[in-house]
Amino acid sequence: MKGRIDMSEDIKILATQAKLVSIDDVYANDYNPNIVAAPEMKLLELSIRENGFCYPIIVIQDNNKYCIVDGFHRYTVAKRLNLKEIPVVILEHDIVKRISATVQFNRARGTHQVLDMSKIVIRLIEEGKGDDEIAEALGMEEDEVFRLKQLSGLKEAFKDKNFSNSWEEFTKKYKWD
């Protein structure tokens, strides 16, 4: 059947390892490009009120605190509802894999802000990742990575690319300073 997971793969079922932690020990990451409109936030709050907190917040442990990888909006609703504890699942990811996981979780469900996605691409480049690695990690085609790099306006995004000398030739031909 198409779309089924081959259970012979080593797929972790991390949801079964959820644990309750103090909401005061959880904090947002600084790179999430996902935005949820007010009506959907109200719906999320209604869902949590009526159905309970069914999906744990995905985090990485940072000393005695927990940085959100996925679930910022559930966390926001939990704070609004004055919950003292929330369920979390802890991943053990470095920054590149953590950013990739955030994007993977969110892209699978919805849309992202383009400029924020551009910032993520630049951050992954700064972490030493190539276009092909970024495309694979974020579930994109390489041309989408290229377009996001163009938005950044940073020459750093294209430092590994060779370009023609046409501009130099143009400036010589027309004695451009």
Bin the helical content: 40-55%
Q: Which term fits the overall shape?
A: elongated
Q: Low-confidence runs (pLDDT<50, min 5 residues)? A: none
Give the number of DSSP strands: 5
First-to-last CA distance: 64 Å
Percent range for β-strand residues: 5-15%
Q: Please give the largest β-sheet.
A: 5 strands, mixed
Individual helix count: 7
Write down the Rg. Answer: 21 Å
Order of strands across the biggest sheet? 1-5-3-4-2
The secondary-structure class comes to: alpha/beta
Mean pLDDT: 81
The helix-strand sequence is EEHEEHEHHHHH
Quick overview of this protein structure:
With 177 residues, the chain is of the alpha/beta class.
Tell me about this structure.
There is one protein chain. The chain is an alpha/beta fold. The protein has helices spanning 38-51, 72-80, 95-107, 114-126, 131-138, 142-152, 166-173; strands at 19-22, 26-27, 57-62, 65-70, 85-91. Strands 1-5-3-4-2 form a 5-stranded mixed beta sheet.
